[in-house]
Amino acid sequence: MFAAPTACYRSAAVPTGVLLTLLLMISVAPVEAADPPPLTHRFKPIDEPIPAPPLRLPAVDGVVYDLAELQGRVVLVNFWATWCPPCRQEMPSMERLHRQLESRGLTILAVDVGEDADTVVAFTNQLEPAPTFPLLLDPDSRATQEWRVKGLPTSFVVDTEGKLVMRAEGGTEFDEPELIERLRTYLPTP
Q1: Which superkingdom, per the lineage (predicted)?
Q2: Which of 29, 59, 117, 141 is the most core-located residue (most Cβ within 10 A)?
Q3: CA distances from 131 to 13, 28, 39 (A)
Q4: Domain residue ranges of the chain, discontinuous segments joined by +
Q5: What burial letters (b/e) apply to 37-66, b meaning 16+ CB within 10 Å?
């Protein structure tokens, strides 16, 4: 039986062509129908918050977003890719979280790793609900490396002072009530 992974990893030691060939072989191999594993809400606090690395990237619409300009807001930074099953699975819950907490001061920046705008838009247009938060492009994976992302999806919470306060590796159910309550503790009080 085939079980979908909870995180996607890409090793720098394996050539991209080999990875794509393996991915194609897996995707066309006959498998039993199986539900993907449930997403979690495994955000863990960072014991000693540190300043977030720089993040300045264009979105699929060409607008450039700079994390430094968002100081004073809580920012959820999610690194993902369209080829990653748990990344695909968590995207609708991220939009639901965005709709719930944007007015309270939460900004979501979803950083696509290694793909172009057409690929990202084609995928996200199929989602229900479709994302309304910025979809940033990191085509050369430079930001991904600066943020020390080891696998996809990986998410971080940056507090109002620009410090990393929480991290999650693997697929996350972003609109889980427990996670929403934890995020509210970082948001400015209304």
Answers
A1: Bacteria
A2: 59
A3: 33, 28, 18
A4: 36-184
A5: eebbbbbeeeeebeebeebebebbeeeebe
Phi, psi of 96 (to 5 degrees): -65, -40
Pairing of strands 163-169, 154-158: antiparallel
3-state helix, strand, coil in the chain (%, to 5): 30, 25, 45
Query: Do residues 113 and 141 touch, judged by C-beta distance below 8 A?
Result: yes
Residue 94: C-alpha distances to residues 20, 21, 49, 50, 130 (Å): 27, 30, 23, 24, 10
The C-alpha atoms of residue 21 and residue 117 are separated, in whole angstroms, by 22
Which helix (H) or strand (E) segment holds residue 96: the answer is: helix 85-101
* Residues in a beta bridge with 157: 76, 166
Instruction: Say if domain 36-184 classifies as CATH 3.40.50.1400.
Output: no
